[in-house]
Amino acid sequence: MTAAPAEVVTARDASVRRGGRVIWSQVDVTVRAGEFVAVLGPNGVGKSTFLQVVLGLLAPASGEVRVLGGEPGHANRRIGYLPQRHAFAAGTRVRGVDVVRLGWDGDRWGVPLPFGGAKARAARERVDEVIDLVGASAYAHRPIGELSGGEQQRLLIAQALVRRPDLLLLDEPLDSLDVTNQASVSALIQQVCRSQSVAVLLVAHDVNPILPYLDQVLYLAHGGAVIGPPEDVITADTLTMLYGTPIDVLRDRTGRLVVVGQPDTHEHH
What is the CATH number of the domain that holds 120? Predict the structure, then answer.
C-alpha cells in the first residue's frame, strides 16, 4: 500500500484577527506534498493573510497551524515565496539570470564572486537547472525589463524554486498576464508540482486559468472557509452556505466558470 504524501501545511480550527476584527475563523486545511491548491475568494477576505500565517509573519488568534512539521516560520528556508508585484519597468537592465541568482544568495551581503570554486559552480549549475525547468533558457540572459510579463513571471518562479523548496507560495502571480500567459504559467506550476513534488499555494481572483490544473481549492468568504476538489467547492450550494446569500455557479459555452451572487457580494470569477 502506497503511503500518502507528507502533510506540508495543516490548519485546525484556526482563526486570525487584525485590528480587533476576525478575518477568518474555523479554518481546517491539509495541503500535501505535490498538491496544487488555489486560495480563492473576493477582495478583503484574507487570502494573502493566509500566506502570511503560513510564513509565520502573523500568528493565529486561535487553533493550530503547522508548516513542514513545525511552527510557522521555523522552516522558511524550505519555502519559496513570490509576493504580489507589478511588472519590471521597461528600463530595468538586470538580466533574468541575475534575478534568479538572487533567490540563491540574495539574502547575503555583497555580490557573488566572479571566479570559480565548488560553491560558485554549484550555484551556477542550480540557477541554470531551474531556468531550464521553467522553460526560460532562451531569454534568461536578456535584461528583464525587455521581457514580456509571462517571461518575467517564469523567471520569478525560477527564483522562488532555486533553493529546492518543499512549499511554494504564489500571491496573485497571474494578475498582470494576458489569457495565453495565464494558461502557460498555470501549466508550468502544475508541472513543477508533479516533477519536483512541491506543494503550491496560489492566491488568485479568477479560478478559470488554473481550474484544469488544480488538486484543491481553499475558498474564503465571510470569515469562513471550505477546502476540497474544485468540483466540490465551486458549487451553488457550497458558496451559498459560505456567503449566507443565494449564489449561482454557471458555465459558459467554453466551460469557464462564472460565480454570480446578490449585488452586495460583488462576486465574479
Answer: 3.40.50.300
